[in-house]
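Subject: Sanity check before I submit

Could someone independently write out the structure tokens for this chain? I want to compare against mine line by line before I put it in a report. The sequence has 218 residues.
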Amino acid sequence: MKKIIFIITIFLCNLLNAQVEFSNTRFGVIAGPNVSGVTNAHNPSSRRTAFMAGVFAEVPIDFYRCRCEYNQLYIQAELLYVASGENGVAEDIKRKYHADYLSIPIFLKGYLTKTANSFFGYAGPRFGFLINQNVVNPPPGREFYDGEEGKAATFDFALAGGIGYSFNRKFEVSARVEYGLSNAYPKLDYDYEVSGDPEALKRKSQQIISVGISYTFD
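---
Independent answer below. Compare away.
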């Protein structure tokens, strides 16, 4: 643990000494499919296949004042509409537990090389704000899924990270994973009184896997 704290401290000190080049900020658009689910909620349930779409800003960071044509390190902030949640499991009845968010990820993004075409990775926090929830056909005896007990939290916090490939630093394809650290359904413990399932008392963590195709403007 001490080594981890030491490494983080050194990194933050270097970041403070780096030059964040806001004047060279570039903007772009991103969209793609996603698959989402929530652990310990709405059991039995299945994942929802939906989409995400939005815009982003990419700000270069220069540690060494090299003034290279292509920087390797960036801060990338995004503003996305993300359709997530999950579906119910039933052979003849369509059940939905959908929740859509205004999502704001803030990533530290690094390219492997200083060339135009390069692999990259990114990681950082994601802040989600609920803008819509839709519950359809909850199981008999669990109508509370559509009530106050089944309401999703208005704020969802997650850690996210991914990898991708950049074509000429304009077109990019990436895949990311988001793991929720907050309780996506804080009042859904009531499910335990109906099902007796001890998993219903655990934190409801939302996970999202997505593929993004983006374009960065000059």
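---
OP: Matches mine. For the report I'm noting this point. Residues 2-17 form the longest helix (16 residues).
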